[in-house]
Design a protein that fits this description.
This protein is mostly helical. It has a domain of 49 residues. Helix content is 51%, strand content 0%. The longest helix is centred in the first third of the chain and has 13 residues. The radius of gyration is 20 Å and the shape is elongated.
């Protein structure tokens, strides 16, 4: 029977949980249900610990276009 009390995790426990998520094939919502943790908590700890899920920073940077053509601006006058 659940008492309604939430488990407090240490930084190391959050790191391990985030690593398990990164290695899983589950969506964030499905993983959180399986681990009995809220999506908001996982997102908060990802930010605090600097974890990037799915793609690492280099992949994200490489996907950004180096130049975006916005077309010619009209001359003022």
């Amino acid at each position: 029977m659940e008492t309604g009390r939430k488990k407090r995790r240490s930084r190391d426990e959050w790191r391990a949980l985030l690593r398990r998520f990164e290695e899983s094939d589950l969506s964030l919502a499905a993983f959180c249900r399986a681990e009995a943790v809220s999506v908001a908590s996982v997102q908060r700890w990802r930010g605090l610990l600097g974890h990037r899920v799915g793609q690492d920073v280099q992949q994200i940077e490489a996907a950004k276009p180096a130049f975006v053509n916005l077309g010619a601006l009209p001359l003022a006058g």
